[in-house]
Design a protein that fits this description.
By secondary structure, this protein is an all-alpha fold. The chain is built from 12 helices and no strands. It has a single domain, classed as Rhopdopsin 7-helix transmembrane proteins (Up-down Bundle). 12% of the residues are buried.
């Protein structure tokens, strides 16, 4: 009888266990509001980044092609190449993510979902990302070599100075020869002309020196701004890739994203669920940090380069004026200058009186 009673008491326990096994669902334990929010953002955030990414990089290409930013600079050429491959990288990433989302979530048939199409898309995407990264590396090496061995730039500057001096000396010698011929024909007139020529020579020499100094100073300021732009891009890549490197090393040691593979719902503890969520969150942060460098370069250039910022502001203002979104500002400076010049210009009465006085002047005093 005791065995019968124990068996009857164990029946509800087995029924409860069977009910728990039937009701235990991994999705119910895993899909909390935070996880669902991250999952929806992970599948659609590239839709938000693709538009600004392409637009901002096109603006970078437009501004970097302006002559105010030194077209002959190798760093500017590297920055143009970087902007171009940033556009291609984020475009191929968006195509891959959209194809995966439409095929897995919505069940649509995509013509790119063939072995050759997937391989080509994957190779193109990785090639563009690698070229963009190596462009930054080559820019940094080029600038490091230019700083360590500035002989080339010094030779160019010295050659420009020598050319200016030689041209100035040639003009100086030609002026002396011309003045000597004039002096032989008319000695009294040559003295006055010689003084004027010497004064003109001094003014022209000082103006040439000032022009060369201004050009060199402008080039130095532009090169300094380009260096700051390059430094900002390099630092952003380093800062954004530090978490990715940490996550990559941690995943190589222990991949917590595979902790739920091949396990039933009853064998998975709440700690395992938490570790899996942390792995999913870290994977999402890795993808986001790897995509942000293709978008933020425009803002880095605007903060680091004054010329870049001024070119963008002027172009944007002209765009608004052309589409009649704002009115052209009145140039008060030119108007005030016209008033000032008219006030300083002698009037007709003054000219008439001056002519009357000059007509009464005796001929002996002229």
């Amino acid at each position: 009888m005791d065995y019968v009673e124990r068996f009857n008491q164990s029946i509800p326990n087995h029924q409860t266990y069977d009910v728990y096994m039937f009701r235990c669902s991994l999705e119910d334990r895993l899909y909390d509001p935070v996880y669902l929010a991250f999952k929806s953002i992970d599948s659609t955030y590239l839709r938000v980044l693709i538009g600004p990414g392409i637009l901002l990089n096109l603006l970078c290409l437009f501004i970097l092609s302006r002559p105010r930013l030194s077209n002959k600079s190798t760093t500017i050429i590297f920055l143009r190449v970087l902007a171009l491959f940033d556009i291609l990288s984020i475009t191929f990433k968006y195509i891959r993510a959209e194809v995966n989302y439409q095929s897995t979530k919505n069940g649509h048939e995509i013509f790119l979902l063939t072995p050759s199409g997937c391989k080509a898309l994957y190779v193109l995407m990785n090639a563009c990302i690698s070229i963009a990264m190596w462009t930054i590396v080559l820019m940094s090496l080029d600038k490091a070599v230019a700083v360590s061995y500035p002989l080339k730039s010094r030779l160019i500057i010295a050659a420009n100075v020598v050319i200016a001096v030689v041209l100035h000396r040639t003009r100086h010698d030609w002026g002396i020869a011309e003045n000597s011929n004039i002096q032989e024909s008319n000695s009294s007139f040559s003295k006055t002309n010689l003084s004027k020529t010497s004064l003109r020579r001094r003014c022209s020499g000082s103006s040439i020196t000032t022009a060369v100094e201004l050009v060199l100073a402008t080039k130095r300021r532009t090169n300094a701004q380009v260096k700051r732009m390059l430094l900002a891009v390099t630092l952003s890549i380093i800062i954004l890739n530090i978490p990715n490197t940490i996550f990559f090393i941690f995943i190589k040691i222990y991949d917590i994203r595979k902790i739920l593979n091949g396990r039933s719902c009853l064998d998975i503890s709440d700690g395992d669920i938490l570790l899996y969520k942390l792995g999913f969150y870290s994977d999402f942060i890795q993808d986001l940090l790897s995509d942000l460098p293709h978008v933020v370069n425009f803002f880095l250039y605007s903060l680091a380069g004054e010329n870049f910022r001024s070119i963008f502001v002027n172009a944007f203002h002209q765009f608004l004026v052309d589409f009649h979104l704002i009115k052209q500002k009145q140039r008060c400076l030119s108007y005030n200058t016209h008033i000032l010049n008219s006030a300083l210009t002698p009037g007709t009465d003054y000219s008439h009186n001056l002519g009357r006085i000059s007509s009464k002047t005796p001929s002996s005093k002229v």
